[in-house]
């Protein structure tokens, strides 16, 4: 059995142009522009023939010093996590208020508890609440965890008054959050911390992926999203990449047409759609390496003799998802983007650089603050906050979690004796990756982080790193090699 992708046959030469590695000069230019756009100083990206890209410091860094902040290229919050945390769909900052975060979470928990009554898994009754993104998977998990047992429900009406801000919790003003700005396309799925985030997301990808009532693509998009939620939400990230490339293409094309009109070079028309597409594709050309079904690690419960059929299944799953996405947002001018080959490379880029997106919850800070108060303020505050803590249960605060692609962080190579680490400080309240020096780093040194727990024994480290497709030859490994 082989999976046929007609676009792959029709656009073979365009696809191979898109997948051919950028020249060293293009790489240098791209990262130079990226670093200067971010006002990032003290760092350069170098490409090495053997090890690929690496990040180097061109000044000394002290232990604990911030090396860089890296805004994501694309990112998503995990579907399940949307129930627990309301964050900006563009910068992933928590939004609304402490009261809204708590009230909304309790409300969602209640919905899910009702939905999974008696653990009737096959039942996916639809709720019409606009923030609800529940599906069968979620109710299944709720049943398994059974975590609601330790929770003490609040009296009637309290959850509602938290959500509509009638109930104001003591000292919550100290933890104020940006207001909730709904998506201008009114999909009820995306919310933002500001108009500028709403506009930036709309322009970068959401205008193609918004499921608002007025969208002609709504039905097809909902099918694609449902499939991704039921199988692998990495497809949602891939859709964002394709949409953002399409939108960049359209923008670049309209600029180029304007230029042609200005200079009346009509003979130039139509000749370089591919070069515009290549330009729009540039950021991804820096990141992709291998197809998803070729690079995905074989799960522990799959026998190595089933390797080939496992990879074929993954490829078939990708084709299924791609066809749903194509129905929703296909654009003939950018046809090569909708080939299975390109889709596989985009997802493979996330598979090899799947960097966790984590933003700490302000709800945790809030309860810690209350806990640190002294008599009589503490006792006074706890009269109100304790029942709320009891209702939330043991996991009273959950971080925002997702997956994102960070263009600079993804250039960082691994070492089992790293000189840097990804670490969020108290002031880092959005989805950017933050890299901190773990020890002092001298000018000219390469910045390294550990992809795995570096305290594991040698063999275990190597086994985990094999999933990334390499055998580690760092100084620590060379020393410990038996
Ligand atoms: Zn934002
Ligand atoms: Zn929307
Ligand atoms: Zn090592």
From TrEMBL:
SUPFAM superfamilies: HIT/MYND zinc finger-like, SET domain. Residues 41-452 form the SET domain. The keyword rRNA processing does not apply. It holds the Pfam family zf-MYND. One of its GO terms (molecular function) is zinc ion binding. Residues 117-149 are annotated as: Disordered. Keywords: Metal-binding, Zinc, Zinc-finger. It comes from the Eukaryota. InterPro entries: ATXR2-like, SET_dom, SET_dom_sf, Znf_MYND. This is SET domain-containing protein. It comes from Psophocarpus tetragonolobus. The lineage of its organism: Eukaryota, Viridiplantae, Streptophyta, Embryophyta, Tracheophyta.
């Amino acid at each position: 059995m082989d999976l046929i992708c007609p676009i792959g046959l029709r656009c073979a030469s365009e696809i191979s142009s898109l997948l051919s590695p950028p020249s060293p000069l293009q790489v240098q230019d791209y990262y130079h522009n990226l670093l200067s756009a971010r006002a990032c100083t003290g760092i350069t990206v170098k490409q090495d023939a053997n090890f690929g890209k690496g990040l180097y410091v061109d000044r000394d860094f002290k232990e604990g010093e911030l090396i860089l902040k890296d805004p994501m290229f694309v990112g998503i919050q995990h579907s399940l996590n949307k129930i627990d945390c309301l964050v900006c769909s563009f910068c992933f900052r928590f939004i609304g208020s402490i009261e809204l975060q708590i009230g909304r979470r309790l409300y969602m928990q209640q919905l899910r508890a009702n939905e999974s009554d008696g653990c009737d898994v096959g039942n996916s009754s639809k709720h019409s609440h606009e923030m609800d993104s529940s599906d069968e998977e979620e109710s299944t998990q709720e049943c398994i965890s059974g975590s609601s047992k330790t929770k003490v429900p609040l009296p009637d009406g309290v959850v509602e008054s938290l959500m509509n801000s009638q109930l104001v919790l003591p000292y919550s003003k100290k933890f104020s959050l940006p207001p909730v700005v709904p998506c201008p396309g009114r999909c009820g799925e995306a919310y933002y911390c500001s108009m500028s985030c709403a506009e930036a997301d709309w322009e970068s990808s959401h205008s193609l992926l918004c499921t608002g009532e007025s969208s002609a693509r709504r039905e097809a998009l909902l099918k694609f999203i449902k499939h991704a939620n039921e199988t692998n939400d990495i497809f949602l990230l891939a859709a964002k990449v394709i949409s953002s490339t399409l939108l960049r293409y359209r923008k670049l094309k309209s600029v180029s047409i304007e230029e042609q009109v200005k200079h009346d070079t009509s003979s130039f028309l139509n000749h370089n759609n591919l070069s515009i597409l290549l330009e729009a594709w540039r950021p991804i050309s820096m990141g992709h390496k291998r197809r998803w079904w070729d690079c995905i690690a074989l799960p522990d419960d799959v026998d190595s003799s089933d390797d080939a059929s496992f990879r074929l299944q993954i490829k078939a799953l990708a084709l299924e998802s791609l066809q749903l996405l194509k129905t929703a947002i296909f654009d003939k001018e950018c046809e090569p983007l909708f080939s299975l080959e390109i889709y596989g490379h985009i997802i493979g880029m996330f598979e090899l650089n799947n960097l966790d997106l984590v933003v700490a919850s302000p709800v945790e800070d809030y309860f810690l603050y209350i806990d640190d108060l002294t008599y009589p303020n503490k006792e006074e505050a706890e009269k109100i906050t304790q029942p709320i803590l009891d209702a939330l249960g043991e996991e009273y605060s959950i971080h925002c979690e997702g997956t994102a692609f960070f263009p600079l962080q993804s250039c960082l190579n691994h070492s089992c004796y790293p000189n840097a680490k990804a670490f969020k400080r108290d002031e880092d309240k959005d989805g950017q990756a933050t890299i901190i020096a773990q020890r002092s780093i001298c000018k000219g040194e390469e910045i390294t982080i550990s992809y795995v727990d570096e305290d594991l024994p040698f063999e275990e480290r190597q086994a985990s790193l094999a999933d990334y497709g390499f055998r580690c030859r760092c100084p620590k490994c060379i020393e410990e090699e038996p």
